[in-house]
Every structure is written in structure tokens, then in C-alpha cells.
Amino acid sequence: WLPKMVAKVIFTPLTNTASLSMSNVPGPQFALEWCGLPVKGMLFFMPPSGTISMFATIATWNGKINVGLGVDGSLISQEGLQSICGEFFEAELQQLQQKVVEQA
Length: 104
Hints:
Strand order of the largest sheet: 1-4-5
Shape: extended
Order of helices and strands: HEEEEEH
Number of helices: 2
Number of strands: 5
Mean pLDDT: 80
Helix content: 25-40%
Strand content: 25-35%
Low-confidence stretches: none
Structural class: alpha+beta
Radius of gyration: 17 Å
């Protein structure tokens, strides 16, 4: 962690040069309930900042991985993003899973 004084000085110049932000939030590794009902998924998003026009978030909890994607609406439509994710994301995850199994 940076001291607050240093972070304030470098935050704006650094965020104005990035186009993609990615964050991972490790959560509890056990099942959760909210108001007596089981939680089926957990996801978070970040507000856009500076020139960041795309972000990916990863939340891991209870042996599951949840991925969230967000893109500036002026770059691609929601339907376009869903199309790309549906077309390529599943195949990439399957390849990743296969490589993990091969290395085990």
C-alpha cells in the first residue's frame, strides 16, 4: 500500500493512461446465506475512472469463480459484448480447464 499523500499525487496520471482495469476479490470459501436464502453467485463492478474504458472483475468464493466484464458503451454495444463473450469465452475456459487437467 502507498501512503495516502503519494497515492493522491500519482493516481490521476496513472489512471489517465490505462485502458483496461482488472480486479480480483477473494471471498469466503464457504456457502453463504442472505436473509435465509442461499447465495448462488457473487459479482462486483467498478465505476469507470479516467480513460479506463474496459474492466474485468474476478470474484472467487466457495470454490467458484465469477467473472464480470464491462465496456464503455461508446466502444461496443451490450449485444456485441455478449456476442463476443458467448462466442469465445466458453471455448477459452474449456481450453484452460483441459491444460490444468493435463498438468495435474
